[in-house]
Amino acid sequence: MSRSTYAHVLQTLFLLSIFIIAISAQTLSVTVSNGTIFGSYCSSPFANVAAYLGIPFAQPPVGNLRWNAPISYNSTYSNGTLNATTFSPSCYQFGSFSTEPLPYSEDCLYLNVWAPANATKNSLLPVKVWIYGGGGYIGSSSDPLYNGCTIATNAIVVSMNYRLGPLGWLTLGAPLNFIGNYGVLDVLMALQWIQENIASFGGNNKTVLLFGQSTGGIIAHVISTLPQANDLCSSVISESGAGRPLATSEQQIANGNAFIEALGCSNSSDVAGCLRMKSTDQINQATPNYLPMFLYLPIQFYAHVDGNIIPVQPIATSPKVPFMAGTCSMEGVLFAVSSFSNPLTVTSVDYNNYLNITFGAALASSISALYPISMFNSTVAPAMYAIAAVITDAEYACPARRALKTSLTSQLGTYAYLWNHMPSCPWESSIPSGLLSVLGATHTSELAFVFGATSNLPRPNGTCVLSTSEQMLSTEIVTAWQSMSKNGYPTLTNGSKWLDWSQGGQGVRFDGNLTFSIINMTQCDFWDTIQTVTTTAATTNNTTLMTTNLIIIATTSTTGAATSYVSSTVGFVLATFIVLLHM
């Protein structure tokens, strides 16, 4: 072959490769009203799935838009295109809880879309929209566990960021009228974006499942009960979040007033301007580390019933779409283990102190009778497991039952599950390895299964692989969630439709047997009778907690520095409690 011929061949191959790359890029682009979005392929074995990451759905909530409702992103992309191949920064994280090396920013209102690479506008695929947890203080759609590649082979998967901490929830009364609930408004804005644009990715905006876990599950349940729910989604799944009571406007305004005083803005002639001039670091320093939710105390910054965005408590009105709620059988173990310096040596004194501090002496004896330590004598730490059982029922299982009961009145479909399996590859990265074996089916333990994450899991060495039976369990839960998005009801892999919860309180137990059975919640009869009483007692006990010095409570000084009140007898380490990203 002559040199000129060889050069011609090389030139032809080069041009052909450019053409192939161009064609490949074209297959990974979608056009919306703002311009053309370019994505990238997921890694093998999901190379047939396209990822479009970091798509703006609202204007950056900075400057005068800080502490305002989100405004739709209507701008044309720069040069008419958007390179959507990397995640956007996460929303600013608050407190001392997050150890994740994520880039943070106030400019964070972006979403991610995963879709089959060959999907077209005519595909009309069901859409699954994820809301992360994190206590309303931390969390991100870019968490590796929430990678949509694995569950977008026959559906569209979407996740979004929403504002957190005081940036997401700060509420102030007249004349400032900071309405709060900005985190919920962000999710609603993302859902509106999905309604307007998801067809470009191959999705059907009439079959949209909204699902979330913990705080994300709370938000999902709230949205299911809003008047506009039908216009934004067609079904909802609340994982470990349904039925949780929200704060009142009065509580949140009081918290907000204390916060602006800590920031040094309460006496300013322009309070709003003073607040918007503060840096995120200053805001973080003035933000109290909140108590874990199992203390029955209102979180400092959180969603609240404002009479407008959230008209009423979510359990006061039925969902407007088919609804599923479920919990893990040992939700509270994660919190109990994380809240004691040595959880395996928790004593009956610690248990009684916990009950008295949390619920008041009058109720403590009744709760102790329902959950005697002797019930847990077969475990390695009976008193710790007794505390965990109280947390599980009071904060998760029984609120979920209230939500399910309310959902029945809509007659649109009500479904329940109980996650009863301890993963062989625990995800909880902040728990010491020596305590992993005591977690059981605890809070967050279903998440890897929901996202089909069956390999390369972090504990113990980043290469953990779920067993064959666990992979089958993951397939079952992915199938059920997929059917909920497509049909409005869940099915098993054999095509059998789940029984409605109205049929004797039956749901699916996700364990080795995967059976339909009555999910026993009879203990919730007790918790339902004392729900209002315990909330009032716990709020009253807040003063007692801070004066008796029994537990760590993070408060804020007038200079904005965090102040801790340290336990001398109980061993709680609550204010420094590392809240998991998935809470």
From TrEMBL:
Protein family according to the UniProt entry: Belongs to the type-B carboxylesterase/lipase family.
Record-annotated membrane-spanning stretches: 562-581
Top-level taxon: Eukaryota
Carboxylesterase type B domain residues: 27-527
PROSITE patterns in alphabetical order: CARBOXYLESTERASE_B_1, CARBOXYLESTERASE_B_2
Signal peptide: 1-25
Protein keywords: Hydrolase, Membrane, Signal, Transmembrane, Transmembrane helix
Record EC number: 3.1.1.-
Organism: Adineta steineri
Pfam families named in the record: COesterase (PF00135)
InterPro entries noted in UniProt: AB_hydrolase_fold (IPR029058), CarbesteraseB (IPR002018), Carboxylesterase_B_AS (IPR019826), Carboxylesterase_B_CS (IPR019819), Type-B_Carboxylest/Lipase (IPR050309)
PANTHER family referenced in this protein's UniProt entry, alphabetically: CARBOXYLESTERASE
UniProt keyword Hydrolase present: yes
UniProt keyword annotation of Cytoplasm present: no
SUPFAM superfamilies, alphabetized: alpha/beta-Hydrolases
Gene3D superfamilies (alphabetical): alpha/beta hydrolase (3.40.50.1820)
Protein name according to UniProt: Carboxylic ester hydrolase
EC category: hydrolase
